[in-house]
Amino acid sequence: MFKRISSLFLTLLLVVGFAFPAAADWTTYQGNNNHNGVITDGAPITASVNTAMVNLTHNGSGWDGIDTAPVMQTLDNGDTYAYVIYDGYAVNGNNGGGRLAKVRANDAKEIWSKQLTLSAGFQLSTPLLVQGNDASSEADDTIYVGTTGFSQLLKNDELNGSPVTDWTVTGGVASGTGIDVTGNQVVTLKQTGLALNNAATNRATLGIHVGNNANTNVTADVQVKVNGTTVVTKAFSKSSSDAQAKPIQDPANPGQYYYYLNDNFAAMAGDEVEYIIDVKNNASTVKVDYASLYQQTGSIQKVTGLDQPSPSNVSIVTGIAGQINTPITTDGTYLYFGTWTGKGGGTYYQVEIANPTNVKTATTGDYYWAGAVVVGNYVYFGGDGGKLHYRSVANFANVGGVINLSTDGGVTAGNVRSSIALVDNTLYFTSQGGYLWSYELDQDGIPTFEWKVALGGTSTSTPVITNNGKAYVGYYAGFTNGGVQAIDLNTKSVTTVGTPGPVQSSVVAYSVGTTDYIYLTTNAADGAGYSFNGTTTQELWNTTNTDGKTYTLQGMAASGGYLVFGNDYNNLYIIK
């Protein structure tokens, strides 16, 4: 079991080579309402950095953790704070669950950790920090947080007992803590009497322990049925083109590998669920470890009293179907965010800040990491299926349009799972087909296709656009390969800056004269933070020698000269 460790300073090298303009705050995803990811108040620009680690309050272990970028601010007295939402794992009273933490960067100290949900599970929506008028205090500041709650519906989802209680089981042998499978067998697990309703989306999970070798020859074809209707299918093998269908190392038990089913399906009514697991195994015995079924509902929470030992939180929008998987963004009047169901039934929301009962929605697709930007009369955001959406700010529910990127670009665009970066009336974003896109807004605010550029792999990275005429984006191929590339906005030429590993996050940049310094994280088993000189492509530093490194899904935030990011072990790293 992964043990909680106290805050630990890990000094790598002496700090030199900083520039310190006036402190700037990082109040939303990628720093500001244009989401361009440019640092303006200083960052490390040499190979010498100090790194500190804070292990955030949690209960037990898991394989998610911190999966969003923090928001940050620096007060007049020089204190810099990072705020981050994360999964604190199993709930036991006030322990565990979805949580919001406040960490002081100056001394790497957790100030508080507030429980926001009464269930464990992924939290993928970067919060929004709305500052008050007092720059010397957080007393009049507010954080808006999108939380996804998960209610587990099945009895004995750990498959305990011999025979296994609460389930009808065929195939395999009950071991007391799961079902052992030897050779080629089909295992079925059926449970009745549950209460699936037609108002909330669902997530089916399953764990199959395949041993201590990622190169296993075990395969497993999995179906999940509700009242006889197939709702989820997945084929697991080491050779799968889907990284989520390959053997994945258990973060709580290094060296042990699992096939993890973790798939959404749409809202539906039902009282019976069946898991069908077709195992092909010519190696040692494998084990079906657990089978769970979650209903998902989300809420937007308003958190105040940030200066207090424990802040206050209240839900201002509730009953949101699906996962809130996009950053919360704003134009100063409204909050914008989207949901993802996995079946195309997501919703994008507009919520008036002054009157949060004024909620408008547009149901036009699924939205994952696709944060919105507002320009003039329209709000713009990407979506699954290779779409660029635009909606009227004044009439969000009824007026807008959808652009098919594949039609404009003549390629298979893939899902848009980046936020929109806005620079000089132009929208920049990436798509999972491996492209960077540029759309210019015409005089009426309608996006017009300008160009696309092919990248080195799949991308979910919001582009960083610097004053030196460069765009920087991350890319990846599975959990082992990837890096960051620079695109010259004039020539459209692509240069690989570095290949430290898969980069699913958005990079951030700090410029000194004509030199851009790039900061990023890698989402791999040994995930870490990295810095590169974007001009020379020289690697400046990394955090690979720090304790507690693991998968790091999201990127860095910056304020007061500090860089901050977190990983799936709930470790928050502070670099200066």
From TrEMBL:
SUPFAM superfamilies documented for this protein: Quinoprotein alcohol dehydrogenase-like (SSF50998)
Range of residues in the leader sequence: 1-24
Keywords: Signal
Statement: the UniProt record of this protein carries the keyword Signal: yes
Keyword Lyase (UniProt): no
Protein name per Swiss-Prot or TrEMBL: DUF5050 domain-containing protein
Organism, scientific name: Lysinibacillus alkalisoli
